[in-house]
User: What shape does this take?
Amino acid sequence: METYFLDTCAIIEIIQGNNRYQKYLDKDIILSKFNIIELSFYFLKVNSNKEFMKEKIKYFNQYIINDEEITLETIEEANEFKLKHLKEKLSYFDCLGYIISKNKGIKFVTQDGQFKNKDKNVVEFIEKK
Assistant: This one.
């Protein structure tokens, strides 16, 4: 089965029922703890119901990769990628997700336009509508 790393925007689109993201519900997905941090902040920002927020965070928590998978080398590589694309103001968490995806040979799913023209072997870009 195919595995995908979802950025936080992709997770939010799934929660909101966006049909363009439904196919990922039948796939293996992975996330980092940093996605959960961003997701939690998103819910707080939009004043979501705390019980709903806890339910969704608990659900997506099961897909978090082990801390051991985010090595010092992975962090260094993410920082180098961010530095290389500094003018694009990429989020650190997205750079980390991109590098994890690249190193695992899986797709990084995002709607972030800054990744639209990145390596097509790594990025699965979904246009915003």
